[in-house]
Write a structure and sequence with these properties.
Elements lengths: L1 H13 L18 H14 L8 H14 L4 H7 L5 H8 L4 H21 L2
Length: about 120
């Protein structure tokens, strides 16, 4: 899964073609940050999640996913483009197992909802 996600994100960031956009707008162009935030908030609400989540929350979830799947802290730090490994350690060393389960369940609901809306 991690390799597949990396390939998708690499295509997206390099912008090979409009079909590579993960979240296109109605014209098939890059979605603005404001529209991405509004869509994300709508999906969270539609899933019945009451936690105040933001698109940036996905970045944190990604970091936790990498660490949970054995990536070294220094590699996670580089991947998230943290200036210092200490920053990564500060945020991810306090993330509890029970919180991970709650957040993973919420994230799964969001992505299932996104899948239902994609045609």
């Amino acid at each position: 899964m991690c390799d597949e996600a990396t390939q998708i994100l690499n295509r997206y960031t390099k912008g090979k073609s409009p079909e590579d956009l993960i979240f296109p707008n109605t014209l098939g162009e890059l979605l603005s940050s404001g529209n991405a935030r509004r869509k994300f908030k709508r999906w969270v609400k539609e899933c019945g999640i009451e936690k105040d989540l933001h698109p940036h929350s996905l970045r944190g979830s990604y970091g936790v996913y990498l660490m949970d799947n054995g990536m070294e802290l220094s590699a996670v730090s580089r991947n998230l483009r943290h200036a210092k490994v200490d920053t990564t350690a500060k945020y991810y060393s306090t993330y509890t197992a029970s919180q991970r389960i709650k957040d993973q369940t919420a994230a799964n609901q969001i992505f299932a909802n996104i899948s239902r809306h994609q045609v």
